[in-house]
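[audit] Reproducing an earlier prediction to check determinism. Same input, same settings, fresh worker. If the tokens differ from the archived copy the diff job will pick it up downstream; this log only records the rerun itself.
[audit] input (120 residues):
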Amino acid sequence: MYTVYYYPNCNTCKKAIKFLEEKGIKFKLVHLVEDTPSAAGIEALFKLGDYPIKKFFNTSGRVYRELNLKEKIINMKNEDASEILSSDGMLIKRPIITNGKDMLIIGFKESEWNEKIKNI
């Protein structure tokens, strides 16, 4: 079972969900704004993927710009990043999909999802 962290108004998230449905893949949705992961939950996501911290941030979002995070995340520690990300779900890049064990993908590129999601 996969978990998809998403925002319902996001067109990329809609494409990702449609992709999963068309493949018949079971998943549960987690609304990033209504059910923002805790700092500990975000740190667990850090460990599942091979992504730099910056990749977890919605760098095109309003909140990201308002907090001037572009300069701050360059040398940010995981603990600080997880605290900031858990403070506002709109800061988190979406969608994120994970199996909770050994796979995490940030963003939606169909070719990457086809490659990394098993049983397709």
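[audit] rerun output stored. Observation attached for the diff report: The first strand starts at residue 2 and ends at 6.
[audit] end
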